[in-house]
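=== Structure Prediction Worksheet ===
Name of assembly: unnamed complex
Input type: mixed (protein and possibly other molecules)
Chain count: two
Listed entries:
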Amino acid sequence: MMRCCFVWPAAAILLFVVSGCAGVQSALDPTGAEAERINTLSWVLIIFCTAVFIITAIIASVALFANERWRQQLAGERLVIGAGLIFPAVTLTFLLAYGIFVLGMGGGSADTSDGLRISVVGERWWWRVIYRDENGRRIESANELRIPVGRPVKIDLTSADVIHSFWVPKLAGKLDMIPGRTNTLTLDVTSPGVSRGQCAEYCGGAHALMSFFVIAMPEKDFAAWLADEAKDAHQPTDELETRGQALFIASGCGACHTVRGTAATGAIGPDLTHVGSRHSLAAATLPNNAEAFARWIRDGQHIKPENLMPPYPIFSDEELASLSSYLAQLR
Amino acid sequence: MENQPRSDLPNKTPRPKGELEELKRIWATPRGWRIVTTVNNTEIGLLYIGVAFLFFLMAGVLALLMRTQLATGNNDFIGQELYNQMFTVHGTTMMFLFAVPAVEALGVLLLPQMLAARDLPFPRLSAFAIWAYVIGGLVFFSTILYDLAPDGGWFMYPPLTLKEYSPGDNADFWLLGIGFIEISAIAGAIEIVVGALRTRPPGMTLAKMPIFAWSMLIFASMIMFAFPAVILATMMLEIERSFGWPFFTAAKGGDSLLWQHLFWFFGHPEVYIIFLPAAGLVSMMVPTMARTPLVGYRLIVIALIATGFFSFGLWVHHMFTTGIPALSLAFFSAASMAVAIPSGIQVFSWIATIAAGRKKFRITTASLFILGFLFIFTIGGLTGVMVAMVPFDFQVHDTYFVVAHFHYVLVGGMVFPLFATFYYWAPQAGRSMLSERLGRWVFWLMFSGFNIAFFPMHLTGLRGMPRRVWTYPSELGWDTLNLISTIGSYILGAGVLLFVIDLVLHFRPGRGGPENPWQAGTLEWLPNDVYSNRSIPLVTSREPLWDQPNLADDVKEGRYYLPNAPTGGRETLVTSPIDAKPQYVIQMPTSGWSPLLAAIFTAAFFLLLTVKLVTISIVCGILAIAFCLIWAWALDPGPSKGLVDIGGGISLPTYVSGPSSHSWWAMIVLMFVAGSLYLSYVFSYLFLWTVSPDTWAPSGSPAPPDLGWPAAAALLLLAGSALIVLTERMLPPAGTKRMAVPIAIFLAVACLVGSLGVELAGHWRTGLSPTANAYGAMVYMGAALFGQLAFTLVIFGGFTIARHFAGKLDRERRVTFDNMALLYHYTVGQSLFGLALVHGFPRLVG
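=== Predicted Assembly ===
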């Protein structure tokens, strides 16, 4: 039976190799400093463990199937002490030292003197993102994190309700968001691009639909983007959008949502000032377009069950069209 | 010893006529529907393992449904709400209603047989615990059918599980479900500690004890220290849910991490609580199949003890991503890796044993499952080393990598040995063997299905899929891997289904299966009947059936100890804990309704409380206590049967009191449990202080009452203890009564209640409220733990007084009194410590 042992590790290696590296949410395709260090560590561990497994399987096969002389070599406490005690004690000590070394490299050497500080607050079931520029001005956004490439950025993680966990596999390991505590994660992205993150601590209800995108941008682009993001919302230009805005205000959407520069100043739900410029809606549940806005407003509970925004079946199709085109132009 | 002439054996044959018939009559299984009143370990052990296996099947069905939902991205076969309930119930059921009870059931079923004892020392306690578990467990599981199932994940992290975020009764059902397993685990621990240490056959020193008994002994000690942490945690969670004492609410000085610490201080040892007995079973089967004694017996015993010890130093590795300091991370990382070493020792001991056999290892279905276990568990152990590396864990924690890891460890480490056990030990509980032919199919389906299902999950996790998600978008590259896993899970399910078919076709509960079909060397393969072994052997080696050739026959003919029933009732031999020298003969209770009724009403009490039917639940609670008292009334038989001859010129008493008594040992185990519960409380108190010193008295809360209050409470406690000591001296000679005894006991209990009252009144007067902040909650929680013991002692004291009035308690017949006195003094000790903490600590830091 143990003969098949060789098939499995081989299959395992094959699986890892052919899997290649794809996906915006894969720890095996790192674009952040910490994720790269962990990726190297992962491969060291995978190779080590595969080797240990194969050797163990060979020893077990000898014990099972080999001739008397070979088997007698293994039949004593020498094997137990050598392979079961000394070998793991020695190798695990080295591995542990390596692990602690990698852990130490992640420790707070990041330079944050430039004044950029980003807070992310876990909410059921979305992410409140707060930037503070050099002047200490608070710029709120949601479900999308933009950061500059090439320098460490500190992210303060907190929670508004239950425990969540902030995880962008391509960039770094995860760190929990715990009520009453602030944890700080350093993201140090090496190349521009989009990564996907997801809540990694079960937080009830729509936990599975609590994701977000991280967009890493060259320093200059980031500065320009942040300046734009700090501005008030676009005013609607055509008639449809203007009706949408009026409807938005009249329907009380502003009780929960903020659109800076308008009467909508609610703080319960995501800030919508520049919602149209984001990669996704509803915490990476829907694409970002006018049609998705309409679906969400009318039928959000089917798209993302138990989410805390009540459905609004009261709007007519025309009303929905105007609302969603207003929201979509909030870029 | 090997060719001992028969004349040297303790008893002469032929045995007197009618002796065997009497044994059969005494140990007879109740007939018809009265079977539910049985307390014999074989019968209730079979019920226990049967129900545990039923939970395995039901939770397995949930797993298949979940795998179906996850087969492709964006699937909507099962919705979010039901899925969240399903994974919570799957995890909770597998851990609490299947794995722990299953290994405990094997302890109940096999341990007495391996020790050639007639039964476990406390048969009714086992029966009570098992029935409470059966009823409570089934009700818990059924909540999935009517949308009442908990949905907070099996480790139920607050604040998600607090009233604010989980307003329904669902979470309470989780607390209820775990409550029953807490009861049955503690009861099991008592049975097993006392059983393994005191009911071994003469000559079986600790160094000759079968490895399974060692592993169960360590299992039981781990329960004694691990379960109290979760008992306290669940008490606090339920109290916060029901009454708003803010243990876990950050806004009021509580901390959700306190739950994580307590839960994992239990939860990590729990994994080894499940694994160690399974490893013990493997250590029993491997030598049989290799036809040679275990290589490295002593190393394995040390490894088991080391695992038990290390397992308490690992709990933080479930919390690596909570943002704890790097130094703690390094410490717990090191400890987590160190625990790999004892497992390595065991794995290579088994391999060495396989190699040591003169003939090659016999490949039976049981051996296949053992080899499958070695294969799967080794992978699980290696991925365990991986996740013990903190930075790696930062990536894979709470992902499908971890799902793969712990299924490899738990299914590999526990389920495969369990199936090996079913095929190997089936004749212990049934009249026939299971099918070796079907068994091979079962194995290969389960083995391949398991690996196809779970191996790809390592990769799914590394590619970013978190656990506990009911759906995922197709564009993330997880679809193919998930589909493979789903197919594998069906194959695994087919294997289990085939096993059930094998069971239906071939398993017939009862006695008289083939004798020693595998030519094993240990005592459970002695010929046995309802009374277990006809006589209790003198053991001279670790594999008595290999080393004492006539043993089976001599035991069966009654040539060894206690071949009869000299007291006319059920009994077994008690030996000394280390050398196994015969000490006395326990008279054991027989079948009866009281454990069953007590269990039914205990279950009813908790269930009705959960659905807020308070009045009727209290009635059930009173009935539960009443039936426990009825059952306890029949215990403590007194020395009336005098000395009995067990053969070999040995005369033993049939009643002892003091530290030789098995019930004294049980009380000590219970005190360890209470002590570790209290230590968990002390930890929680200090932990919350470090988190929110600003809520602590004297600055953040009303200053503690004047020292006069705790001084008065302490004086009352000491007076009570003194009264109990005095009562002990006053116990009247056998057969007489003395009025001073009940009066003194009454006064002692009154002192205890008074002390509790003083403590509560003192805090209440300062204006401290348990709901105000974490400090207040902790102060009153201390009093609640005191109150719990005081309540027990009120009942126990009343019971002791009643025994005296009934003429059942005197200077000789005094086990009831001794046990009450032990618990009393323990309560005084704990409460004095509590007074020092609650009144001293704020003054110290304030």
